[in-house]
Design brief:
By secondary structure, the chain is mainly alpha-helical. It has 13 helices and 2 strands. The longest helix has 19 residues.
């Protein structure tokens, strides 16, 4: 999770303006997919730098700013604070949005924005941010649905976390929150984890571990207990990978039946072309979650239900490289959930490629 690597600031800044000398291709030597991926991310980050606002933000939005800045930190070049204004100004912008209660946001969605800001501040590795991270993570735990907030354990939303202004928690927000709590080094014994696991389990179509009457048994996940954007309570891709990833971050072992069932659903619906169950809706969110989850599982090969061995990182990298605009950005023509916003879609694509990168071969095939 923490990929903190200190680099020479001057070289890092220059690499966003001109391709580094190390990237120059030797005559006659084939370009590996790994090298193509790095160049693709470099091009995207140069474009994003040109789009950064004077206040340090992208799209004037704390959540999008956190995602873009995370794309710099997790990129193959592993930028950090001090490497240039593309990181430093983004961090300063987020710090300026901190509220006395610990939330980090501008006008709305304090839970969502705070969770993403925690991930960025924690991943920066700067100890000066520790008090802000601790305060923000306490805020996140404080908005979790539990007895203290009026939700008994029997309630379907118990353990969930939502946008912060919305009273209904969902798995999309919870997956960001649990990743933030992990990044903040929250004590594994903190009761927030157990509560989160209960909510995650109630979003899974697995009646053996989901006590809700609607639960089926395909092993996939939905948006919230009894609610799916794929219709009725049907499982779909982005939420299934969100569920698997959330269980892993909540210290559930990968051999746990809930994780295994989720992975089995993913094997039966393997795709790098679309968000299974939703087509192109939320595609960049899906590939980001897909890649981070498979990287967390640590397997370079993912077998689909028909027993085909997929080099998932290679397949996804090729797909994203083919979709990238020459200028460096990505955008979803199906603009639902803000994916027509080039800053957001490009951040998700860069984060997906960063998760793919360690699994790509150094040699051309």
């Amino acid at each position: 999770m923490h990929r903190i690597a200190l680099t020479l600031g001057l070289l890092a800044c220059c690499s966003l303006v001109h391709p580094p000398l190390a990237a120059a291709q030797e005559p006659g030597k084939p370009v590996t997919l790994r090298e193509q991926t790095q160049r693709s991310v470099d091009r995207a980050l140069r474009w994003l730098r040109s789009e950064q606002g004077q206040d340090g933000a992208w799209s004037g939005h704390p959540g999008i700013t956190s995602l873009v800045a995370l794309a710099y930190l997790r990129s193959p070049r592993q930028y950090s604070e001090g490497d240039g204004p593309f990181v430093d100004r983004a961090v300063a912008y987020l710090i300026s949005k901190a509220h006395p209660n610990g939330a980090i946001y501008d006008r709305d969605n304090p839970g969502y924005n705070t969770a993403l800001a925690i991930q960025l501040l924690a991943e920066s590795g700067n100890p000066a941010h520790r008090p802000l991270i601790d305060h923000a993570s306490a805020y996140l735990r404080g908005i979790q649905a539990d007895d203290a907030t009026g939700y008994p354990q029997s309630h379907k939303y118990y353990g969930g976390i939502g946008y912060g202004g919305d009273e209904r928690p969902d798995l999309s927000n919870l997956q960001i929150a649990v990743e933030a709590l992990a990044a903040a080094a929250t004590d594994p014994q903190d009761p927030a984890w157990g509560r989160a696991i209960q909510f995650i389990s109630r979003c899974q179509n697995r009646s053996e571990s989901n006590d809700q009457p609607w639960a089926a048994n395909d092993g996939g996940f939905v948006y919230a207990p009894g609610e799916s954007f794929a219709g009725a309570t049907r499982s779909y891709g982005s939420m299934t990978f969100a569920g698997i990833k959330s269980l892993l971050f909540a210290h559930v072992d990968k051999s746990d039946p809930r994780v295994v069932a989720g992975v089995d659903w993913a094997r039966s619906h393997y795709s790098v072309e679309e968000n299974p169950g939703l087509g192109q809706q939320g595609y960049y969110y899906y590939v980001d979650t897909f890649a981070r989850t498979l990287a967390l599982l640590g397997e370079p090969t993912f077998k689909s239900a028909d027993n085909t061995a997929h080099q998932w990182a290679e397949e996804l990298a090729r797909r994203l490289l083919a979709l990238q605009d020459e200028a460096g950005w990505w955008s979803n023509p199906v603009g639902r959930w803000w994916e027509g916003n080039k800053h957001l879609a490009t951040a998700h694509a860069c984060l997906a490629l960063a998760a793919c990168y360690p699994f790509l071969a150094d040699e051309a095939k």
